[in-house]
UniProtKB/TrEMBL annotation:
One of its GO terms (cellular component) is cell outer membrane. Belongs to the TonB-dependent receptor family. The keyword Transport applies. Residues 132-238 form the TonB-dependent receptor plug domain. It is found in: Cell outer membrane. The keyword rRNA processing does not apply. It comes from Dysgonomonas gadei ATCC BAA-286. Keywords: Cell outer membrane, Membrane, Transmembrane, Transmembrane beta strand, Transport. It is a multi-pass membrane protein. It holds the Pfam family CarbopepD_reg_2. PROSITE patterns: EF_HAND_1 (PS00018), TONB_DEPENDENT_REC_3 (PS52016). This is TonB-dependent receptor plug domain-containing protein.
Length: 1044
């Protein structure tokens, strides 16, 4: 829904009582002057928007006498007695550009132009807000309304492609576990590089479970000018999510209903039983020339013609596990409104997301449970703002998420691991209502191990459930000290409490299983029971943790002589986390102070100084606290008197910043300055006893040495940016260039010789990484007749380099990680395949697998030229699995009551290894094999000039020369994805009057709809590794939104 339609929806068709109410209020605020000035004039007009729709509640005020004013009625008309014909009347309305007219020149019809920037003029930053035009740091923002266009279950997947400088990687699509990994401006550390998450001003562990109908905005803080106030938590960037609050208006009730169909973005294509057997024979004969094939011609024919589907199944095992479609439902109802004294927003949401496992055959087994994943979530939010007195206000924000995760008794990783390690001719699964897991007198028993069918994997795993309850509470108060001390000064305080409860349980159950015996006389299948159904086994427990947060702040914001604007913030905060799973079960605590001073002159010259001084008890006493300063400057060139007013360059701002921030995310490590616990073992001498039972021990040693100097990482950041508005504000451009030097990265020492006997050295702050990059965000918005359209895009690039990492010196520089990016891939370099015998004879010596190389094998490059292919020839190749380039392209239009929006999202400069079951043929002898291996090298296919993309087949599985890690198996994973598309229709208000509805909109949208990528068989975001991952989902959705 466009901003224009949003405003029209809120204002049109109000009841006459609303008009009367507004007039009464206006009569109080703007009392008509008892004594008319000279030559008073009566002014009457009608206010409409660009489509001619009347605007209700538009404020009309006499500029020289602001107590004289009125508002437009429900027809958009108003009448005002101006003091004189020359009096200037100011017409203002939220979301539209203000206009001014002399009283004697007031047009009969005033057409208000939408102010496309007005709703975005305030952005949320650390511990406060700022006007967009005065921000001198690097901030990216997206509204909650934009996120609703994505029919997904969590926030991170809705954000993908919408924010410059932020990369999202969704590794899988399992319900409840499909959130994306987030990186802001790439990676600056070898440790945890995830950003800090702030929800309604409080640090929280996650934002994923929040219903997107609750979200007002998401702001991303990227440079030190914005993140220094977070001190030791700000180096990786900060994401601030702000939920909706009430408005001073009559109650507005909104209801949204969405029903979605989910389907895998990619289904890998594996060989069926017949093709698998044919290629398996070829692989065996390649390794054993003159030998006998594994599968006979009779076996092959039975696989091919399907004459014996029980003993010779020609199955597609992956498709038997992963079904084509599943459903997802989302419902939300919320109410928003309030008075001058109390404003409220209350929301209730429900999500039900089904999994993708095909369990239709298992229903006949009456297992007593459903192994298909399912995720349900209930969301409740209540936000209240209360004006207690003229100067005292309070805010209460309550959020609750109740989740139920249901999935098989084994992980998705294990499900796909057990599936892919088996050949396609596995046992047939469910036959005549019985779970078949094997054969008696199997004719293929000497040839192939049958392995597990998808039915036996799921049916025999039982099920697991997690019940979670997350409660968040913020209570804050603010007191305006303007009447007591000085105008613009205020004090505020906030207390937040978070509570998380999780009950987890796994129930295993033995089920009836059978083996099939084929009667040699009748050919009929007989079922021989091999295991009996048993009672449910149980394991489980609970996990409870909570966190408390407190802050108090003194704020100042005042303008002097209309040109000097001064602002300030001084804040104290502290946080305590109670979690039994923490090391030593000791609560984790943090405290600190925050300072910020801002100044602007004539809205042209901008300056800001900020700092964070905080610490953590995880570090030694002399290393707990750190000081993190930042300074930023801005110059709005377009506000200079010498800058020519024109229709081409309407606004231009230069900005730059320098600052320091920290990172204390050191994984599960705590108290690294302490000695490790003593460990005990056996030996030749008796040293004493230990423990309550006084057990004797014969040796003792320290588990790990402590480091009394351990502390946080420190990042020094520079940012240079420019903001432009061009062509009558139709085009906006925001561009940034940044650098970062991350020092004191905590890493383990690796340079002590093994002969010292020291095996576990204390971690030390000795790592260093440099990161740099740039980003640009473009938006064009215009209107032609009654078609409003927009398009834009964002592009981000970042590259890092390890400057120092504690590692032993290697023989060659390319064997080191220092000097290369984090996550750099290392592998043998390849130069195609050995196509000719003479090439095989003249090749280097292969130090692995007995130097057995044939035509059709991968040709490795001897990097160091010593005539041997060994680990000294492994070099950095390609890019890491985290993209250096990310981008998004968005466009849309509105025409009459129709609206359309499209989002494309992509990434480049990333590569993934596809090895094991999704790379090599017959990995571990009998693993599933991709159809792409039909394009393998053979002498005949090479001589015929056929397409060859795979090396020759080998029955050696992962013990052949071709299974070495080389760039042959490293694939470019760049992609462009049709991330989101939505088309909607809003019914005319005239049609809705009889239904007492304010608005009704129907829409269709989708997510991950199509992907362009050179990768085959796997989604580019989930492709790295061996394929043991739940597939990513494409979503097709129909929705309804009504307001009354």
């Amino acid at each position: 829904m466009t901003k224009k339609k949003l405003f029209r929806k809120k204002q049109k068709n109000r009841h006459c009582l609303l008009y009367v109410f507004l007039l009464l209020i206006c009569g109080i605020i703007f009392p008509i002057q008892a004594e008319a000035q000279s030559q008073p004039i009566k002014v009457k007009s009608t206010v409409v928007d660009a489509n001619g729709e009347p605007l209700i509640g538009v404020a009309i005020v006499e500029k020289s006498n602001k107590s004289n004013g009125t508002i437009s009625d429900f027809d958009g008309t108003f009448t005002l007695l101006a003091s004189s014909p020359s009096s200037i009347l100011v017409i203002t309305y939220i979301g539209f550009k203000s206009q001014e007219y002399p009283a004697n020149k007031m047009p009969e019809r005033i057409i208000m132009a939408e102010d496309l920037q007005s709703l975005e003029e305030v952005v949320v930053i650390g511990y406060g807000t700022q006007k967009k035009e005065t921000v001198v740091g690097a901030v990216a923002s997206v509204s909650g309304k934009e996120l609703l266009k994505a029919p997904v279950a969590n926030v991170s997947n809705a954000l993908a492609g919408r924010l410059p400088g932020v990369t999202f990687i969704q590794r899988g699509g399992e319900p409840g576990y499909d959130q994306a990994t987030i990186k802001i401006r790439g990676m600056g550390t070898m440790n945890d590089s995830s950003p800090l998450i702030i929800v309604d001003g409080v640090e929280r562990s996650s934002m994923e479970g929040i219903d997107m109908n609750e979200i007002e905005s998401v702001n991303v803080l990227k440079d030190a000018a914005m993140t220094a106030v977070y001190g030791i938590r700000g180096a990786n960037g900060v994401i601030i999510l702000t939920t909706k609050v009430g408005t001073e208006s009559k109650p507005t009730v909104s209801l949204s209903i969405n029903t979605s169909v989910q389907t895998p973005t990619v289904m890998p294509k594996f060989l069926n039983s017949y093709d698998y057997a044919v290629l398996k024979n070829e692989a065996y004969l390649n390794d054993n020339p003159g030998g006998k094939s594994i599968f006979s011609e009779t076996d092959l024919q039975k696989f091919k013609d399907g004459s014996d589907p029980i003993l010779y199944p020609n199955t597609e095992t992956y498709k038997n596990l992963v079904k084509d479609i599943s459903l997802m439902h989302q419902i939300n109802a919320n109410v928003r409104g309030g008075t001058k004294l109390v404003r409220y927003f209350v929301s209730l949401g429900y999500l039900n997301q089904d999994g993708q496992y095909d369990v239709s055959d298992l229903k006949s087994l009456n297992l007593g449970f459903d192994p298909n994943p399912n995720y349900q979530r209930y969301n409740l939010r209540s936000n209240f703002d209360i004006q207690m007195t003229k100067d005292l206000s309070a805010s209460i924000k309550l959020g609750n998420q109740i989740g139920k995760e249901h999935f098989p008794g084994t992980s998705a990783y294990n499900v796909f691991f057990n599936l892919l390690k088996n050949p396609p001719m596995v046992s047939p699964g469910v036959v005549d209502g019985k779970l078949v897991t094997g054969y008696i007198n199997d004719p293929l028993s000497a040839v192939v191990g049958r392995g597990f069918s998808s039915a036996s994997i799921l049916g025999g795993s039982g099920y697991a459930e997690n019940l979670t309850n997350t409660f968040n509470m913020n209570v804050s108060m603010k007191y305006d000290l303007g009447n007591l001390i000085t105008k613009g000064l205020s004090v505020r305080a906030m207390y937040a409490y978070d509570h998380y409860y999780k009950k987890y349980e796994t129930r295993s159950k033995a089920v009836d299983t059978y083996s099939i015996l084929k009667d040699p006389d009748t050919g009929e299948n007989r079922f021989i029971q091999t295991a009996n159904e048993g009672a449910f086994g149980y394991s489980g427990g609970t996990d409870v943790n909570r966190a408390e947060y407190f802050e108090s702040a003194l704020e100042y914001d005042q303008t002097f002589n209309k040109v000097h604007r001064v602002g300030g913030l001084f804040l104290y905060n502290q946080r305590k986390v109670y979690n039994p799973s923490l090391i030593y079960s000791v609560p984790a605590g943090m405290q600190g102070i925050v300072g910020r001073a801002t100044y602007s002159y004539a809205n042209r010259y901008l300056g800001e100084v900020s700092m964070g001084y905080n610490g953590s008890e995880n570090f030694p006493e002399n290393k707990r606290y750190g000081f993190f300063p930042a300074v930023s400057l801005g110059w709005i060139l377009s506000e200079e008197s010498f800058f020519p007013k024109n229709d081409y360059v309407n606004y231009i701002k230069f900005r730059g910043s320098y600052g320091e921030t920290g990172n204390d995310k050191l994984g599960s490590n705590r108290f690294l300055y302490l000695l490790g616990a003593y460990e005990y073992g056996t030996g030749s001498y008796m040293f004493g006893t230990t423990g309550l039972d006084k057990q004797k021990y014969t040796s003792a040693w320290e588990g790990k040495l402590g480091n009394s100097e351990v502390t946080w990482e420190r990042a020094v950041k520079y940012n240079y940016g420019i903001d432009l508005y061009l062509f009558k504000n139709k085009l906006s451009v925001n561009a940034d260039y940044f650098t970062e030097n991350r020092d004191d990265i905590l890493i383990d020492r690796q340079t002590v010789p093994a002969f010292t006997g020291i095996t576990s050295l204390p971690a030390a702050n000795i790592g260093r990484v440099k990161n740099h990059g740039y980003e640009i965000d473009l938006k064009w918005r215009d209107k032609v007749n009654n078609i409003e359209y927009w398009f834009g895009g964002n592009f981000s690039y970042s590259r890092n380099k390890i400057l120092h990492k504690e590692e032993a010196m290697k023989k060659y520089p390319w064997l080191m990680q220092t000097g290369f990016p984090i996550g750099q891939q290392y592998a043998y370099r390849s130069d195609g395949l050995y196509n000719y015998k003479e090439d095989v004879y003249n090749r280097p010596f292969y130090s692995f697998y007995g130097n057995k190389v044939q035509q059709g094998d991968i040709k490795y490059i001897d990097i160091n030229g010593d005539g041997i292919i060994d680990s000294n020839d492994v070099v950095p190749v390609g890019y890491s699995e985290y993209p250096e380039v990310s981008f998004g392209i968005n466009m849309g239009l509105t025409w009459k009551n129709f609206d359309l929006s499209i989002l494309l999202q992509g990434a480049d400069n990333l590569m993934v290894f596809q090895t094991g079951e999704i790379g090599y043929a017959f990995f571990n002898d009998w693993a599933m094999t991709l159809e792409e291996h039909k394009n393998r090298w053979t002498q005949e296919r090479f001589d015929n000039g056929e397409m060859i993309t795979m090396p020759r087949l080998s029955n050696m599985g992962n013990s052949s020369p071709n299974s070495e890690g080389s760039d042959f198996w490293l694939h470019n994973a760049r992609y462009l994805r049709l991330k989101n598309i939505e088309i909607g229709y809003t019914f005319p208000k005239a049609m809705l009057k009889k239904l007492y509805l304010k608005s009704l909109r129907v829409y269709a949208n989708g997510n991950n709809l199509y992907t362009w990528t050179p990768l085959k068989n796997y989604d580019p975001e989930t492709a790295n590794g061996r394929g043991f991952i739940y597939p990513q989902m494409a979503v097709f959705n129909l929705g309804l939104n009504l307001t009354f």
